[in-house]
Amino acid sequence: MAWAVLKGMGASASVSRAEIDGSAKKAGASEGCQINNLKFANATVSFDRLDKALPMPIDERAEAALKLAPILEDLDRYELKVTGLASGNYQVEIDGELAGKVTAEELGSGWNLANAAGPITKQSREVLKLVFEKNNVFFHRWREVQLYSLPAWANSTELETKRTAELARIDKQVAELEDQIQKARKPKSHHFEVKPATP
């Protein structure tokens, strides 16, 4: 449902795109990211990539929805495009972790790794986990403390003082979680390697 609403509102699909021209051995027209330390050696392309934003995290429980609607294609394009590679299969590693195995043709047309394995998806999901945690704390504050209503015979200044203190304690917890989210959502530089796939 959210996919249809966001698509209807014209939400951009592009998170970032890194382009490498393997024939000219240089970075291409990238968008939303910086490419540094680009190297070509022994059929391997390596570089460091720093993005302006993280891809949209997909909760593991919602991955089945990716089969029902083109969510990644329409709303979450975190792309790697490497042209000029010899035909065959390649593996993409991020910080030494295998993100996936793709063909030279897939890389040449732009491979969307928004939900691929590796540290970028892990970071996105960590941000999502913190957002869920903060939302649960805030829901508890609103539903069980703020809205809680004592019967008239039980109302007292002491109870209201305790409720005010509990609201302040939870507000502090929410603020701490928001600080954690702000720190966790900052993209980090990652080392990419594109090399012929091992059997």
Tally of DSSP β-strands: 9
How much helicity do the residues have? Answer: 25-40%
Strand content: 25-35%
Whole-number tally of structural domains: 2
Give the number of helices: 5
Mean pLDDT: 88
Global outline? elongated
What structural category characterises the helix and strand content? alpha+beta
Order of helices and strands: HEEEEHEEEHEHHE
Contiguous low-pLDDT stretches (5 residues minimum) are none
Alpha carbon gyration radius: 23 Å
N-to-C span: 40 Å
**What profile does the largest beta sheet have?**
5 strands, antiparallel
Q: In order across it, which strands form the biggest sheet? A: 3-4-9-6-7
Polypeptide structure, described:
- The protein has 199 residues and is α+β, with helices and mostly antiparallel strands.
- It folds into 2 domains: 2-114 and 187-196, no CATH class; 122-184.
- Helices cover 37% and strands 28% of the residues.
- It contains 5 helices and 9 strands.
- The protein has helices at residues 2-8, 71-75, 104-109, 119-146, 157-184, and strands at 14-21, 26-27, 33-41, 44-51, 77-83, 89-94, 97-103, 111-112, 190-196.
- The strands form 2 sheets. A 5-stranded antiparallel β-sheet has the order 3-4-9-6-7. A 4-stranded mixed β-sheet has the order 2-1-5-8.
- Helix 4 runs antiparallel to helix 5 (157-184).
- The mean pLDDT is 88.
Protein topology:
Elements: H1 2-8, E1 14-21, E2 26-27, E3 33-41, E4 44-51, H2 71-75, E5 77-83, E6 89-94, E7 97-103, H3 104-109, E8 111-112, H4 119-146, H5 157-184, E9 190-196
Parallel strand pairs: 1-5
Antiparallel strand pairs: 1-2, 3-4, 4-9, 5-8, 6-7, 6-9
Helix pairs in contact: 4-5
